Predict the structure.
Amino acid sequence: MPVHDRKSKIQQSFASLLDIPKDVMMDMPKITIIGDLQVFIENHRGIVEYGSAKVRIGVNAGEVEITGSDLVLRNIYPDEIVLDGRVESVRWNR
Amino acid sequence: MFFSQLWSYLLGYVLIAVRGQNLERFINMALSRGIFLWDVTRWDDTMIMMKVRTSGFRSLRYIARRVRCRVYIQGKFGLPFFLHRLERRKMLAAGALLFAATLYALSSFIWFVEITGADKIEPEKVLRAAAKYGLTVGVSKWQLNKSAVEKGIEDALPELTFVGIEIHGTKATIEVVEKVVPGDRDEVKRPAHLVAAKEGVVKEILVMVGISKVAEGDTVRKGQILISGIIKDEDLNPEEQMAEQRNQKPRAPGEPILVRARGVVRARVWYQGYGEAVLDSFEEKLTANRVASIGFRVGSKKVIVSGPREAPFRFYRKDIDSRRLPEWRNISLPVELFTITYTRIDRIHRHLGYEQAVLLASQRAMGTAQARIPQEAKVMSRRLERVEAPGSGVIRMKMIVETVEDIAKVQPLK
């Protein structure tokens, strides 16, 4: 078992023991999807690819890939991104 | 969100087009430098459009050089640019200012005068009176003395009882209330009975108009007819009947004459009052003698840290002040800190003597009786009675007051 995996497992069990939200404890992104209109990503690691049909956003353990049409980055802050447009899929790439 | 946009507008922002190959890197570098970008849109394979505040634009040029892309300004928005444009068009700014000033100036005059409540009086008359005292179309609001105009109109037009002026914006509303001339009061001429307003025993009766239905010494109920307003033929003696036939317009035989009964019926009326007084009573009084105990509660377990566990007094008041830790997210800790304050209460025993209790109860009884007796009634006698209730420690007194008063009340005939 790799060291990283063991560490994250301990973190997870600790988080569930204390009832602390996982995004805070494990530095995970928090993604909120409003219908097919808006995707809201907190705790990101920058934009990997940006196109009007496909957006990839770096997060702690991989990438989040959003496909759709007319995708617009409504706001970009150092820790959150608001993505508008017609969303078709939100996918996790490891 | 809204404030961020407002702030962007105040600082000024530009719409830029960025052309190049590695545009994601451009965005990430801007991000790491803390430059706020928004409305980022893909134009085509080599170009994206975005908005950035003027304060962040300078650093973007540097990033563009590093990433090897070109930045073109497509549009400038916000207050600084707007003001800059305005500077070149001075007449426009002056016009806008003039417009605002004119609007303000015109809104301080009265342009409409309206009258409400004028039913009989012509509104023109009120308007003329108002104009005479300074309220017309075109008068300025600060020169208008509302109360003086109100007073002036009231004096000028005696047919009004009330004049009120209200100003809403550029409209003045004069509200008038007309005097109502009382119509001839046929109310006081209509046929009626005199009935008893309350129970009593008739002492004397004086009939001026009508037929008496009760005699002296009769006991009457409330609402009973004392003097009737319906006069039948058999009530009249022959002489009166003759006179009646001569005076009145002819009427069908047997049909009664209707009159408004008038007269005085004085009767003896009794009123009752009741009062009581307690022989032994306790008065509770808080003292300054207090003891506090402090503790905490975990779940259902109670721990007292300092102070007594039980109340140290026989009679006391207990005040509990408990505090919890503030809730954080959805977590609330089952720990509670509390302070219990015991304040000693002194009970003072008060003993009234028999005479004193009787006196107090009598006074109370008299008070309740007196409250029921009308002002014009003449009090004939007062009688005090003790209501027996053995062994209760309470003295109960009853007071009976006898009065003589006029009990006749007008009741119109249907």
